[in-house]
Amino acid sequence: MRSFLVLLIIALLGTGCSKFAKVQKSTDYDYKLRMADQYYAKKKYHFAQQLYEELFPLLKGSDKFEAVYYNFAYCAYYMRDYMNAENLFKGFVEVFPTSKRAEEMEYMRAYTFYRQSPKVELDQTNTMKTIGLMQAFINTHPGSAKNKEATEIIDICREKLEKKEMLSAELYFNLRQYKAAAIAFANLMNNYPDSDKSDSYKLQVIRSYFEYAALSIDEKKEERFQKVIDECNEFTDRFPESQLLTEAKRFLNLSLNNIKAIKNEQVKTSA
Fold this sequence. Notes:
Layout: H1 2-25, H2 29-41, H3 45-59, H4 65-78, H5 82-95, H6 102-115, H7 125-140, H8 147-174, H9 178-191, H10 198-214, H11 218-238, H12 245-270
């Protein structure tokens, strides 16, 4: 039974390919266009794409060219060829800037970059391009029904960039590169000032500077523990209601005690 089904599928595929080959060889371009549209409607995008591509130079400048260009661009998109789709969506807007479809094509161009945005650990160039193009779309089309979705996508992309930057800062900390970690977490706060994780980033700045001070040579410790104290005071001023305030105060007290011990040692040494 299984062998029969396999043979049946092969036969059907062969029949489909044979029929397409006949369409492809036809010199009746109206017929070929009708078949391309039928393949497109049936989601057989690979066949539709090939026929549209053949018809492209023949229909250029005709009243049918816009619809062909539109479907051709979407064939690439539905086949997940996002790089080609992006170029075609962009090209459509350049060729038909006043078309009623131009706004949709602009949005889809931005959306192809979103579809190419990789997982957090990888290069985020496409994520940043998504943000730029989606914001440009919103600015250019302030009344568009797509703006709500565009804004949501921008937020998702910014969260991804924030997480990538956070992972990088955490890596510095885990590698015991504490000064670099402190700077990275501080930059994270500055780059995402509205983040709901700002207090945790600030605490990581404090923790990083504390570890940096603790590992420093004796001559540098007082200065570096003072930096921790300054960061703790900033935390208190900026996040007075934070649930992490107790932890920040713990680092404050530890740093004060370390400076006190350093000064006592200095007094003993000079006595």
